[in-house]
Amino acid sequence: MMDQEINEDSREESSILIWLTGIAFFAAMAAIFLFVPTEKTEGPIQRIMYFHIPSAWLSFFAFFIVFISSILFLWKKEREWDIYAHASAEIGVIFCSLVLITGPIWAKPIWGTWWVWDARLTSTLILWLIYVAYLMLRAQTDPGSMRARYAAVLGVVGFLNIPFIHFSVLWWRTFHPQPKVISSEGFGKGMDPSMLATLGVSLGAFTLLYFLLMGQRIRQEKLRDEIDRLKREKLFSS
Amino acid sequence: MDNFGFLFAANAFVWGGIIYYVYTLKQRNRELEKDLDLLKEAISKESR
What we know:
- The structure holds two protein chains of two kinds.
- By secondary structure, chain A is an all-alpha fold.
- Chain A has one domain.
- Chain A is about 80% helix and about 0% strand.
- By secondary structure, chain B is an all-alpha fold.
- Chain B has one helix and no strands.
- The model of chain B has no long low-confidence stretch (mean pLDDT about 90).
- The interface between A and B is medium-sized, with 34 and 28 residues.
């Protein structure tokens, strides 16, 4: 009875989140394709920015949650934190893949090449490889506390790459442009206000999507745990 | 310099990626729920 109530509550919460995310994406699409003016130098292709930056933000945020959850798992040894880290790592990898796909599509007509081995691009590729390795480690090792512990260590170490990615465009001369939103001139000073607003809406939509996907992914891990528990019970009782 | 093809491709990858991921999540959830129901049914039959 209690389980049923919890399920109904979480279903209600997730349907509110689905609606909010849908509305946010609708607003973002309207802003990207109808509201925001076309950039003078690059033309319409610059609109990729409104997907590229939010995808990067979402993946970095997801890896930050992996980092925090992994530290808390190593400290408290609670399965809950391992679930959050695993769920967030998968979402992070998906959106980091989208960054690595949309980036070259944007680069080809602007830089004349799909890829350059500069500091920003290479460090982002390394970040993606680290978290793919994280997921492979989880998939290839037996379930248990050792798997969770190894994964947590990798989850913490992998995140240390993110500050390096952020500052790479400032420390080295790169093809990749320098930050426009948080720049040395101040917050949003390097951008047109309408572009900044559109980017803000898109960032909000992607953030809501993260929480929606996390809810689904956490639920999945909990279902898997419940199945394992019942299987063990069944084995011992027979 | 229009490059609408590139803009379309980037959009298609982002939306395609998100929709495919949401679809696989739903599929996995459905399979797990089915497994859980079967297991619960088997356990309740055994205990009778």
